[in-house]
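Entry for the shared binder. Reason: the reviewer on the internal report wants the predicted structure included alongside the sequence.
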Amino acid sequence: MTDETQLSQGSHGGRPQRAAIVGIQESSQDGEARATITLTYHDAEYKGHAAGSAAVSARPRIVGEATLRAVEAVTGGRLQLTLDAIATTDLGDSRVAMAQVGLIGSNEPLVGSALVQTSDSATATVKAVLDALNRRMSQVLT
């Protein structure tokens, strides 16, 4: 059994100032889930991959890990990252994805969040990870 999801979001004209989501691909087969996240930055595409258990509860972590690998590619390995925590919770009438990212060599946790739109938790997870990292990425990339 294979389950695939793909989402495309291009930049809105011109060069993005931040890494932008180009695609999210998820698949599962034989009890293993895989995610590939594609980001674009200054007209180049960068991919990150991760795999793990196909359990529904493991999917946000796999998507988050793949996002970190894509960010590391964008920065040419200048950022080395760990996914310390990932969660989705209700906040009032909204559903929110949250990510806590660790930067190897630093004790400062980086935290980001994003609203889950129309039950699309994968996109919200990618956005939460990017939210946690955007300032740090801009420091490294300038």
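Summary line for the report: The two ends are 44 Å apart (CA to CA).
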